[in-house]
Amino acid sequence: MKHRTPHRTGAKGPDELRHQIEHARHQLGGTVAQLVGKADVKGRARVRAADLRDKAGAMTVQLRVSAAQAGHAVQGRAVQAGHAVQGRAAQAGHVVQGKAVHAGHVVQGKVAQAGHVAQGRAGHAGHAAQGRAAGVLVRLRRPAVLAGLASVAAVVAAGVARMRRR
Question: For the chain, percent helix, then strand, then coil, each to nearest 5?
Fold first, then answer.
C-alpha cells in the first residue's frame, strides 16, 4: 500500500478539507483500479494468451526459415554428390570402353594371324589343297570371331560388376 498521510487534527478550512477529500479519493481510485486489474483473471489470461500466440507465431516463422535454409543446404550437398557419382561413373565407363577396344584389337590381330597362317599353308599345298585350306580358313575365322566377341563381352561384364561394387 501507499504511504498514508499523517493524521491531522483537522482541516484549517473548508478548501483544505475539500483538497484532502479529493486527494483521498484519487488514492482510493488508483488502489481500486489495481485491485480490479488483479481480480480480472479472465482479462489477464487473455493478455497472456495473446502474448503466447504472438511468440508462437514468431517461432513458427523462425522455424520455417530455418527449415528452408536446411533444405537448401541438403539440396546443394545432394547435387554435389550426384555430380561426383556421375563423374566417377563416366570415368569407369571410359576405362571399360578402353579395355573393350583393346580386347577387340587383340582378337582382331589373332584372327588376322590365323588367317595368314591358313593362307600360307594353303599356298604351299597346291591348287587342290588351296580349296581345302580356304574351307579351313572359313571354319577358323568363325570360331575366332566368336571367341573374340566372347572375350570382349567378358571384359565389359567385369567392368560393369566392378562399377556396381563401388
Answer: 90, 0, 10
Measured between alpha carbons, how far is 63 from 95 in angstroms, rounded to an integer? 48
Residues 157 and 123 sit within 8 Å (Cβ to Cβ): no
**Residue whose grid cell is 554435389:** 80
Instruction: Report helix angle 14-39 to 41-125, nearest 10.
Output: 40
Burial class (CB in 10 A: 0-12, 13-18, 19+), 133: buried
Record the pTM: 0.39
**CA 75 to chain CA mean position, Å:** 4
Weakest mean pLDDT among 93-97, 113-117, 148-152: 148-152
